[in-house]
Structure prediction request, 715 residues.
Amino acid sequence: MYFCLASRQKHIHSGRYLESYFEIIRATVHFGVKNLILAGVFTYSLQSQLEAMRKKATDALPGSSWSPLEQNPNLPPERADIVIVGGGVVGWSIAYWLKKKEMVRGGVRVVVVERDPTYSRASTVLSAGGIRQQFSLPENIHLSLASADFMRNINEHLGVLNEDPVDLQFNHSGYLFLASENVAHIMEENYSTQRYAGAKVSLLSPTQLKEKFPWISTDGVALASYGLENEGWFDPWSLLNAFRRKAMSMGVIQCIGEVTGFKYTTNIMTTVDGEQVDFKRIKQVRVQMPNSLEYQPVECAIVVNAAGAHSGKLAEMMGIGFGPKDTIAGIPLPVEPRKRYIYVVHCPDGPGLDTPFLIDYSGIYVRREGLGGNYIAGTSPEEEEEPDTTNMEVDHQFFEEKVWPYLAHRVPAFEKLKVTSAWAGFYDYNTFDQNGIIGMHPLVNNVYFATGFSGHGLQHSPAVGRAVAELILDGNFKTLDLSAFGFRRIMAQEPMLERNIV
Amino acid sequence: MLFSWTSSLRNRRLRKRNAYFGYTLRFYGPNVAAAYYILSLKGGFRYAGQTEWFRTDQRGNFSWDFINHKDSPLEEVDMSHTDINYTGLGNLEGQRSLRSLSLRGCTEVDDWFLSRLHVFQDSLEELDISHCPGITTGGLVALRNLKGLRRLDVSSLSRISTPGLVIILLEEMLPHCQITATGYDHSLAQEEEEGREQMEGQSEEDTSRAGIR
Prediction:
C-alpha cells in the first residue's frame, strides 16, 4: 500500500495527498468508513484514485495480464504451426477443418491473417451465392455435392453452444441452363456425367421448358438442364461467419493484418542433368498491422495461400515464378483478379417464387432476390474486354449493352425493368484453365494453395477446406481425390478445362 | 460437454431410426420396406386399392398383416408428429404412386427434406406440412416441382417472416393447388391503424377538455 502511495507519478498534489491519505487511513481505523461517508470526506476523485490504486496493486501481483513492456494486443503470436493467409470463406473453412481433424486438443496452432476486417472488397461476400452440381468435371460435381451435404447439416457441424443456430437462408430453386443447337451435345454429355456422379439433374425439351416456366421465351433453345436437388443460392456472409465463429470457438487465432513478406531458406540442389533447382522453405511470415509500420514475424511450419483474388501477388512474394522462363521455377501462379459486375434490378411483373438461377447460352445469368420482385443479373465479359481491376467502380454501360438485351430476349417480362443497385467483385480467376488449384507447390516445400476457383470458391468451400486439412494433417486426400487439381497440370501445361456451354 | 453429449446422442438416435431399411428391402421388396419404416416411426399408411389404414397404437405395437401385401404400393402416408428426416425419406422414395403425404408437426422436416420431395412430382396431390418449425421460405420454393399438387397445407410455419406475401407467391407458383394457411397473424397493419386512431381520438378529447378549461 505504501509503495503505491509513494510511486504515484501522475499526481498533481503528491505531497499533500500523502498526508491526507494517512489521515484517511487513521480516520477509517478509528471511525469506520460509514462515518467518513457521512462526514462527506470521500469525494468522487478520491474514490476513483483509490480504485485505480487497488487495480494497480492487483496488476502488480502475479497472475494478472499487466506487463511493464507495452505490447499491441492485435499482433499475431510469435510462433504458430499453420498460417492461413486470407480470411475469406475458403481460409476459414480450412481453419475449421484443421481444428476439427486435429488428433489432440490444441494440437495445431492455426492463425488466420486477414487484412480487411470489414470484408468490403472480399470476393466471398460480394458473390451471388449460388451452388450447383451442373459441371462437366466429376471432381467439381463431387465437391459441390459434398458442400451441399455439409450445408444441409450445418448446425451439426458449425453449431456453437449457447449461440444462435446458423441460418444460411438457402433457397432451393435449382439452376436452369439453356443450350442452343450447337452446344446441346455438350449439355447431354455433361448430363450423363452429372447423373453418374450422383447429381439430381433433369433434361428438358423446349416444350417442357415452356410448360414449366411459361415466362421464358424458348427462342433458340434446343435443350435445357434443370437441377432438382441441392442447387440454389444462399447467404455467403452467414456461411463465412458460421465458419469463423466455430473456428474461433475451437481456438483458431484471428489476426487483422497484411502479409508483406516472407523469410525463407533456400536449398540449392542439382538435378541429374546438372541444372540447379532452388527448393525454398518458408520460415517466417511477416504480418504488418493495418495503418501502421509495426509488423510481427510469425514463425510457422506451414503456410496456406487462400488469398483469393490476390493469391498471385502473394505467390510472387514467396518467390514463385522468377526463375528461367522454360523451367518449372519460371512458371508463376496463374491466378489474377478479374472484375465482375452484378446488377440488382427491380421488375414488378417478373417471374415469381419458382425462378431458378437461370444461365443462358449467351452468358447472362439472373436469379431472384428476396420476395419483392428484385432480381440479380450479370454476365461474364469477353476476354478482350476485361474491366480494369484497380478499382471497384461499376460500369452501367456494360449492363445496357451486354446484359439487358439478352435478358429481355430470354425473359420478355424483363424488358421493363429498373436497375436499383449494382456492385463489383473480383473473381480469383485462374488464367490457365479456370479451375481451382489445390495442393503443394513443387518448389516451395511448405506452402499449400487453395485458390484460383474462378467464381466457384464459395460453393466448394466446405469440401475444399476438408481436402486441404486432409492434405496437411493426413498427408493425402482421404474423402475426395482432388489430385487432378494439383500443380502438376500447371507444370506440365495440360489444362483441365470445364466444358461449359457458355 | 453434457450438452454436446445429449445432442449427439439425440442425433445418433435420429440417424438410427431413419436408417435405410435395406434388409427389409432385400427380402420383402420396396413396398413392405417403406411400410415397415413408416410403422417403426409410429406413422400410418394405406395401400393403394385398399381402404383400411395400418397404424400403430399408443405403445408402438402394430399388426404384421401388412407383410401380406408385397405388391401393392402405398397411396396415402401419414407421418404427422414423427421423427422423419432427409435420410429417412430415402425409404419412401420408391413409392411413385404416393397421393397424399402428411407431415404435420414433424420437427425434423426442413427445407432440404422438401427439396427431396420432387421424386413424387407426378403423383402427389395432397401435402400437409403445417406446424413444422424447420421450414423457411427457401424450402417452400422447393415445392415448385410438384405440379400435380392439389391441396397444400402450410399453416403455422413459425419461421416464415412475411406469411401473407409468401402465401400469395405460393399460390402463383402452384396455380392448380388449393392452399390452406391458417394460424398466421395477417391483421398487424390493421391493428396499428386502430391504435393510431384511438390515440388521435384521445388527443382530441384532451384538447377539447383543455379548451373548456
